[in-house]
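Explain this one:

_____
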Amino acid sequence: MRILLIDLGDEGSQRLARALHAEGCVVDVLGGIAEAVWVCGQSPPQSPGGIAVAVACAPTTGRVERDLSLRLRAAGIATPLLVVAGRAATDDVVAALDSGADDVVCRPVRLPEIVARLRALARREPVVPTPRLVVGDLTLDLGAQRVSRGEAPIELSPHLFTLLETFAWHPGQVLTRAVLVEAVWDPAHDPTSNVVEQSVAALRRRIDTPFGRRSLQTVRGRGYRLDPAA
């Protein structure tokens, strides 16, 4: 069984790699998300010598492994992903699973259990889970391009969906007007127009106003942010 171990800053990743090797696994170790996505894409589970399971080792569950799982699934890569973390908050575990991870375990966990979980994942028929971004009670289904707040669906144009997705990739962070223009609009877009302001206002009317919320916030002189707690 060929395992791709992605070291996301966890001091126990090398020990796990050696232990898996001793169990007879072929283990490749990488430290970058972009490289891991590329390797998984080049060596799918069904190919000869392909990656059977990817294992992300992190000191704690959080945004990094969610970014990894989202990028894998958004790229159409079905490689099973197991997250092994030193600490795991319930909300982070849920977010990791929702974003496309197949399993999450928290140390201390015995090696035989990890190996058994890897075998179970390797036996599954490869299926690309639908990647989702979750910010507070907002959920974005990236595959179907659907949005909901809680159980209530929200209708968005493709353009507004892309704008919301840009915010959702960076929850709580202030995004400048220039960053939004680069991410959402054509490079030839006139930077002096007020299309950003108009689009943010239109998005706010869709995701906030009907629900009495103020999650899409203007930060005067800096830009805009999507606040998960608001």
